[in-house]
Amino acid sequence: MKYIIGVSGYFHDSSVCLLKNGQLIEFVKEESLTRIKGSRGFPFRALTFLIAKYGLNNDNIDHIAFYEKPLRGWAVTTYNSLAKPKRSFDLLRSQIKQFWSGPIHFAGEVKKVIRINENKLVFAPHHLSHALTALAFAPPQLQNNALLHFVFDGVGDGNTTSIFKTQKNDAQILFQQDFPHSLGLFYSAVTDYCGFLVNEGEYKLMALAAFGKPVHYDFLKEHIFNIEVPKFELDMSWFDYDVSPERSYSDKWVNKFGPPILEGEINKMTGDSFQRAADLALSSQLILEEVINSTIEWGVKETGVQNITISGGVAQNSLAMCSASKIASITSLTIPPSPGDSGAAIGAANFARMMSGSRSMHCKEIFFGHSQLDFESALFQDMFCLEKSFSHMDEMLDDLISSGEIICCYFGGNEIGPRALCNRSIICAANNKKSVQALNLEIKKREEFRPLAPVMLRPVAEAWFEISQKVCDCYRWMALTAMAKEKFPVKYKAVLHADRTARVQILEDEMHPLYNFLKRNSGKIDMLVNTSFNVAGDPIVFDAIDCYVNMSRLGATYIITDNGLYSLRP
């Protein structure tokens, strides 16, 4: 019995995964244990958790793999700072500080947690980690064939965009774009300018785009982007992310587009002010999609390989992934459930596995670990009251959801990606407008312009949405949006965004209580609304105490679990 540990850390969304005999069995985000959303730094708690749970030691661990080459990434950014010393003093100071506390010290920090032979530590190229994460989730029949992997990212190891070709155990680099020319950092700069947090608010910018007009698209294409497929360059005079750790856009950007929007200000903006932000959001979204699609089309034409994957942080842009799925020259598209840095821990572990001569792992499951709820403990019973056991809860659950009740879900293992997929979710009936609005605005306190995600069975999804047949399983984890068909039922319109799209989740697990709810109530309630089980700004719940605290703060009463339907004790 041999284990491989994959680690992502130091920048944002730190995580640890565990392979046992070549199979992924655990995936733990550091934020789940620190209760700090997007936890960065070395994932001490997540690694310690897995070591204790599985009795890991030097004898039963083959490798501990890190998701990038620490020194290379640091050197590239530092070199860039040195090239512009007058403008980049703050960034250079930050880079010097990182030398003493950043990923360069990965080996030493691992040894603080576990005694391990240094020759068991493996460092995977950052973008290859992303690509091998995607490879792990590609259908097994495609893994034996040539696959083209597109990585669109902020920056990792000094690279921002990469194209790889894999076949069996061989991985070949076809193209790499270097820092500072970055799609991810461009989109983050616009995110920053619109008052959202970088590495967190990009999905809000994407939602905002639905309300915009592409009035700045031509300007962006003519004056800021220089696109020579597959290479593109940015006019860096518009940006500061290459010289400053504090601000992503430059004074030149402000002079053109107006004063930056302060954090939280977008919620109060109306009329022309709101439209200004929305127009820039849509223009930026469209140029992002154009660069992605043209890069993919070039890669497919050059290689003749039509089965592709997309990963990297930019792959979390579900609108862009929907656009990519429509490219005529591709046959299949795989987007992993966690395409960003957090999920790259899986790719690092896969790298270590393939480096030793084994074939890539194949992951079908998207939930890992086990429930952290001890139903028999005094603590749990002090917090929750059993209403109906699992085998007897159907009728009560049907009545609650049908009447407009908002229900929390804690079922099975944890979602591997950033999106709650009904295992750690809050749900309500999609045809109850009052409940949907309450869930979005009153309970989760989300921005009004952000959509909620609909959950349904496949026949319903294919009847009411334009579901791409090229996409491999990716609707299971909300990897891309889908356009509503003309015959979309009016009673469910609350789930549609302003552009008539929705980030659809197709529920396939016949053992899941919500799958059976939808099957039982077919024709009555064919769709549920899903959002993550957490208070805004907090990580998704991990254990019983998290459930109790979040339900109390959210004002929720009921929770469905593997053991049955419970209510919150007052």
Poorly predicted sequence stretches spanning 5 or more consecutive residues: none
Total beta-strand segments: 24
Proportion of β residues? 15-25%
CATH class of the largest domain: Alpha Beta
Structural class: alpha/beta
Shape: globular
Taken together, the total number of domains comes to 3
Give the gist of this structure.
By secondary structure, the chain is of the alpha/beta class. It is built from 20 helices and 24 strands.
Can you put this structure into words, describing what you see?
The protein is α/β, with parallel strands linked by helices. It folds into three domains: 3-67 and 69-123 and 341-364, Nucleotidyltransferase, domain 5 (2-Layer Sandwich); 177-334, ATPase, nucleotide binding domain (Nucleotidyltransferase, domain 5); 378-568, DHBP synthase (Alpha-Beta Complex), CATH 3.90.870.20. It is 36% helix and 20% strand. It is built from 20 helices and 24 strands. An eight-stranded mixed sheet has the order 14-24-23-15-17-22-18-21, sandwiched between helices. A five-stranded mixed sheet has the order 3-2-1-4-5, with helices on both faces. Helix 10 (217-224) packs across helix 12 (271-303). The radius of gyration is 23 Å and the shape is globular.
